[in-house]
Write a structure and sequence with these properties.
Length: about 140
């Protein structure tokens, strides 16, 4: 007499749970990648030990080709003051952060400081200028 088993084993692989896991990982990486905001302009910042942090209103970049950027917009030296003034419009105590490549001559940084000082003098405001640095290693 042959005994037959009622519970038969299936060797099939159910991939539905694996596809759910892949989609969840895909959504996770898509959401976290949008939160990362890399600097659009690649700079080698000068090193410093100070840790001054401030709420920045606008950022002015000077790259290694001595080109000015207010935010993401490239501007010439003659347009610099007008562009910074437009960004600071309506603020009394804004902060301008200068992110400059460490190979840039000091004169280009002084041009930005002079532009902000002229804006302060013309509008009777108290905007500050900070120079961004990287940590010393």
């Amino acid at each position: 007499m042959a005994i037959k088993s009622r519970n038969k084993r299936k060797i099939d692989f159910n991939s539905s749970s694996m596809s759910d896991l892949v989609f969840l990982l895909l959504i996770f990486f898509m959401l976290t990648s949008t939160l990362v905001a890399p600097n659009a302009i690649k700079l080698l910042l000068p090193s410093s030990n100070s840790k001054t942090m401030s709420k920045q209103t606008i950022t002015v970049y000077v790259d290694d080709n001595n080109q000015y950027y207010v935010g993401e917009k490239a501007v010439s030296e003659s347009e610099l003051q007008a562009e910074i003034s437009a960004e600071l419009l309506g603020q009394v105590e804004g902060t301008v952060v200068i992110r400059s490549d460490k190979s840039v001559a000091v004169q280009y940084i002084v041009n930005i400081i002079d532009a902000v000082n002229e804006i302060n003098k013309d509008t009777d405001n108290k905007h500050k200028v900070l120079l961004a640095t990287s940590n010393k290693k």
